[in-house]
Amino acid sequence: MNRIAIFPGSFSPFTLGHKSVVDSAIPLFNKVIIAVGINSEKNQYFLIEERMQWIESVYDNNQKIEIKRYEGLTVDFCKKENANYIIRGLRDSHDFTFEKNIAQMNKKLNPDIETIFIITPPELSHISSTILRDIIKNGGDISEFIPKEINI
Amino acid sequence: MNRIAIFPGSFSPFTLGHKSVVDSAIPLFNKVIIAVGINSEKNQYFLIEERMQWIESVYDNNQKIEIKRYEGLTVDFCKKENANYIIRGLRDSHDFTFEKNIAQMNKKLNPDIETIFIITPPELSHISSTILRDIIKNGGDISEFIPKEINI
Amino acid sequence: MNRIAIFPGSFSPFTLGHKSVVDSAIPLFNKVIIAVGINSEKNQYFLIEERMQWIESVYDNNQKIEIKRYEGLTVDFCKKENANYIIRGLRDSHDFTFEKNIAQMNKKLNPDIETIFIITPPELSHISSTILRDIIKNGGDISEFIPKEINI
Amino acid sequence: MNRIAIFPGSFSPFTLGHKSVVDSAIPLFNKVIIAVGINSEKNQYFLIEERMQWIESVYDNNQKIEIKRYEGLTVDFCKKENANYIIRGLRDSHDFTFEKNIAQMNKKLNPDIETIFIITPPELSHISSTILRDIIKNGGDISEFIPKEINI
Amino acid sequence: MNRIAIFPGSFSPFTLGHKSVVDSAIPLFNKVIIAVGINSEKNQYFLIEERMQWIESVYDNNQKIEIKRYEGLTVDFCKKENANYIIRGLRDSHDFTFEKNIAQMNKKLNPDIETIFIITPPELSHISSTILRDIIKNGGDISEFIPKEINI
Amino acid sequence: MNRIAIFPGSFSPFTLGHKSVVDSAIPLFNKVIIAVGINSEKNQYFLIEERMQWIESVYDNNQKIEIKRYEGLTVDFCKKENANYIIRGLRDSHDFTFEKNIAQMNKKLNPDIETIFIITPPELSHISSTILRDIIKNGGDISEFIPKEINI
After folding, report:
1. What ipTM is given for this predicted complex?
2. Residues D45-89 pLDDT 10s
3. Are the CB atoms for C21 and C59 separated by under 8 Å?
């Protein structure tokens, strides 16, 4: 079995929380494709090229990581990439309720694709891209919440 | 890497929900050890021998499944069994809040062990061992909520 | 159709929250049977006779209300009483998660029985029998949280 | 008593989850008015005529069902239609928290109107109109999640 | 120590729930600054001047209350105002999950600033500015949910 | 105003999470009484003398901290100690739902007593006395989750 996983998201921006999920997933899979969504509304704030470049700077030399842009249904992108797993991080019960429905629906759309959840470590559980964008808009410094390779 | 996972629980009794979690995990691991807890209070209702036999009847010919009794810390049992993963199922936000703390604590106790969460399919999300024991105590029939191999 | 509903519970004690649920349900049904559970652990604190008497004192002259003791599966009691509805109150998301599983399970056990939920008014949402018993044990006064007909 | 109920929503589109709530409510009421909201933002995706036609195709010959468009306060629409009940479905704790506030507020605005909640069956709990619209936008097939009478 | 607290919000409009939080906080602090946000999207419905005037009419003669407009990061506004505390009200678990992340992030941005939470009384827990704006838009009367000094 | 606060609990054992709540509360109050409950079931595992000694070792030289045993209603103990505030920590939405009801009930029992909530920092949010007791029972080491002054 090929053990390829997709980690889909906006990554607007990619945070230490996202990084912890990817780092936890790497040993379990042969390849982890970080799939950067093109068309979500959240993506308007940073360009897709910018968001992809940031992630590339973090996983520069990691042979198991690929970074790809995607649009359309996540399960269709999985099929195209020959991936059987979707990886998602969970921080709190609000995340859970939202992700549960998506994961159950994706399995109905394609029963061959399993969603695997990883809980972020407690010290990163308060970090969300939404809050980070809000800090940036208001002139604050987000450097302690994102990988050191990223300069925003 | 050995890709051995523990699926710990009381399994009092083992339900279709438990089975769906194990079935989803099997392709991802080389071995899944179903670890049946000895000393939890929930275990008083059914004998450990009985609970183990039921699970054995379900996974009779599956080379990837082992069924073992355990007590003590889950992370200690993982180490003893050379397992780097703990598998847990999630049904609802109550499960999530409970499991989140346990998973984060286990990772603090042993950073080499990752907990992987799988969400039960919607049609099984209402099944819990606690409710099934309650139905049995009150003379009801639980056969549609447990694997067909199990006769209670 | 007979429109008979069961309102099952421990009622240990019967609170203003319980009363608000019953009062909201009365116009919708021809008969509401308040079903007082015998064998739950919560019932140890007050005798079943006591708990039933309290409720009787509240609905003394109401022709639509019956108060009965019950044990066993709620759906079996419904069938025996020719009731097609179970009524439950909801105060908060913790109640919801618990009640959701029970209701879905009851419908699987007997598809003819529907559970109808009523949300308690905000000013009563903090009242629970568990907290009231705790206040009594510690010498506090609960009279403002129970119907005026009940003297504890 | 007239036992008329309103089931308000956007129904954008009407799903198997909505249908299960209506089907559970029908025996309890003399008339169930499916009230299709005009002015919500969610309604932009499908025309009101389209949404109403879909529901009509499902309940074509059901004498107890009426389908009406509405705008304004739900309690005002209830009054105009002589309805004393609002029906709402609940899938998860996120739904509950949202619906609780609306129901409590509606009762404050008009104490004669009671909101009755029905929990969707587990096998439909992951279906939401929002997710279905997202699948449509991304070229997916939603036919297994909506009534067979509806062609989208 | 100066014991100055900020109570930030949109107050669009200021409700009895907001008032109960301020009233509970007043005895604990030497000064409570009600900080009315300028640039949130929610603020579009009422002008900032209007929102500030309403609050002024409520706390007209209270020497401990100041009403100020603000934009930018809340922790920066705290620093400028020499305040070490942020006050927030909590109604339900949805509020909690949202506020938890903000409070934890604010403490990371400035460890000298503590967020203090006060739970609204049960009889006001269903009131939110969002629902009140919705009632106004639909021609309803919100006077029983806002301080009597405010005429909207 | 005297600004005396009670921090009630079992503290079985006192954790870094408890300590963070106390440390956050100290600047706001003239005195913080850590009130160690006698009669809760959770207290059976450690003796009250032991639990009190642990807390004393942490706050040895802090003039603002008092450690007292208590039983009965928390609001009665507040009155006896002339305290107008109860302090509680919040970790997650499960905590919140539980604490909300207690706080609202305490305010009904004595409107002069306000409960003030402080959210634990993210890096301590997974620590609970219940989990720590479980680790101890199973032979694990909890020293990184409790104040360094405590030896268990």
Report:
1. 0.94
2. 899 999 999 999 999 999 999 999 999 999 999 999 999 999 999
3. no
Amino acid making up residue E106: N
The second-level CATH assignment, the architecture, of F4-145 is: 3-Layer(aba) Sandwich (3.40)
Inter-chain residue contact B128 with C71, CB threshold 8 Å: no
Q: Flag whether the pTM goes above 0.90.
A: yes
Size of interface C-D (CB pairs under 8 A): 61
- State how far residue B122 is from chain D, nearest Cα, in angstroms: 5
Q: Which of D20, D22, D100 to mutate to test the interface with C (most CBs of C within 10 A)?
A: D100
Q: Six-digit token pair at C12?
A: 């240990």
Q: Between C129-137 and F93-109, two packed helices, what is the crossing angle to 10 degrees?
A: 50
Domain extents in chain E: 4-145
How many Cβ pairs within 8 Å bridge chains C and F? 35
How do residues E57-104 score in pLDDT, each as one tens digit? 999 999 999 999 999 999 999 999 999 999 999 999 999 999 999 999
Q: C83: exposed, middle or buried (C-beta count within 10 Å: 0-12, 13-18, 19+)?
A: buried
Cβ(A73)–Cβ(D138) below 8 Å:
yes
Contact F123/A126, CB-based, under 8 Å? Answer: no
Residue B90, min C-alpha distance to chain C (Å): 13
Q: What's the gap in Å between the CA of A144 and the closest CA on chain F?
A: 15
Cβ atoms of residues A132 and A13 within 8 Å? yes
Listed by number, the residues of chain B in 31-50 with a beta carbon closer than 8 Å to a beta carbon of chain A are none
The C-alpha atoms of residue D16 and residue B125 are separated, in whole angstroms, by 18
Cβ-based neighbours of B13, under 8 Å, separated by 6 or more? B46, B51, B54, B129, B132, B133, B142, B146, B150, B152
Q: Does D97 touch chain B (CB under 8 A)?
A: no
Q: List chains adjacent to chain B, taking adjacency as at least 3 C-beta pairs closer than 8 Å.
A: A, C, D, F
User: What phi and psi, each to the nearest 5 degrees, are found at residue E30?
Assistant: -80, -30
CB neighbours (10 Å) of residue D86? 24
Contact E39, E71 (CB under 8 A): yes
Residue C135 tokens, joined: 């206040």
Under 8 Å between Cβ of A101 and B119: no
Q: Which chains touch A (3 or more CB pairs under 8 A)?
A: B, D, E, F
Tokens (6 digits) for B2 = 């050995």
